[in-house]
């Protein structure tokens, strides 16, 4: 969640069922967010327990997949409307109906008149009816591009069409309607939103490693089981720990914080450590933000390396400076989950609300205003911007800031404590794999001079899996050929049934009377039998 939150206090292992507000207390964002998380987890757990891993209501099961052959290798899939649940998460595949506009004055006058001459004044042709459902190419959050060969459906049959589901945060930088304009442009936006994202994607049959000799399944269950094994292999294995450590030369620093403080920052922060490029430790990189990655700047225009911003930051803490690393992205790039190169701010034009970047953004990003392009600031830098971070991080290695960047992000070094800044260190467990977008959050507090991170009885930091992204999957269809598509969806019926004609007590009395009658008849039959 790239949102401006103070911390994330939801811990399912504590088994809290509600957050209780107390009178006269300060209201915090973390309390309200935890209440929402508790209720959401309860509702989804109940749904998953009753439905199973995935399924849809019998009379409104969504995501029916059909194959549509196309030209120039641009085959397509139809995606039927309806509802479906994946791990208790509700998905809606219905396509919104377009609104009906009020006719303008000229059209209304023409309709009321005699139609004019030579066809002038004739009513405008009716807009074409929108399709009833989605297709593979126009599904709302997948952003498939026919110009990219990797986005096309597999040329070889069979392949699996499956659902990929996750949640992401949305702020006013992506959805301007979230901003209350009555507050004025100088005020920050208010609350962010969580959005459920679903995508219908193809998986080549060879990736399922089916056990049959010719690769063709014997039944639907075999495909589902093979897909479940593939899903298990997608789970991230990375684990990280965090701590704060008082630098060796802290006594030589100005007394801006407590002398014994391990966290040396002057303000409370919510550090976010996020994987940029995925893969093994040799391939993976990471980036970090002291504001949970929430410092964003909506983009109004792009001219080469110059970016025009809607507005600058509200203060020096939330502004851009020369040397900052930014991610130029938009809704489409976020939906695709592809890491983009981080660019350096080279020049500022404050009167014109423009910044010049170290390179031109990717050609497929930021050129479509309807995708709401924006800059996201990250706070790491090459060369070590570690105020009080220490030179080796306690592992004998150079600080993370002292190394070179790759694609604008920091290289992952496993098995040692890596300093971020102000005494905050992170540790990546050796021998793990990393997935782009996964993240950890580390609250740092000036009151304690420490970071909030779970420890054992000996106060050793514990290794934790990422806080997100939680990705969910479900199989939809096994596409055998252009004319053969096997449906893999599951459906459930309603639990409610008709009310019985009699009450439960009356039904129980009737059953007891029937049992007594049967017992009497059995006894009479036994008495009528002649003795042996």
In short:
The chain has five helices and 26 strands. It is of the alpha+beta class and 532 residues long.
Average pLDDT works out at: 87
- Helix-strand makeup class: alpha+beta
Q: Mind describing the biggest β-sheet?
A: 6 strands, antiparallel
Proportion of helical residues: 10-25%
Counted by DSSP, the helix tally is: 5
Query: How many beta strands in the DSSP annotation?
Result: 26
Topology:
Blueprint: H1 29-51, E1 54-57, E2 65-68, E3 76-79, E4 83-86, E5 89-92, H2 105-112, E6 134-135, E7 159-170, E8 193-204, H3 220-233, E9 240-244, E10 269-275, E11 285-289, E12 296-303, E13 306-309, E14 325-329, H4 331-336, E15 343-349, E16 354-357, E17 374-378, E18 405-406, E19 409-411, E20 417-419, E21 424-428, E22 439-445, E23 450-451, E24 472-479, E25 485-487, E26 491-492, H5 504-528
Parallel strand pairs: 1-26
Antiparallel strand pairs: 1-4, 2-3, 3-6, 4-5, 7-8, 7-24, 9-21, 10-11, 10-22, 11-19, 12-13, 12-17, 13-16, 14-15, 14-17, 15-16, 18-19, 20-21, 22-23, 24-25
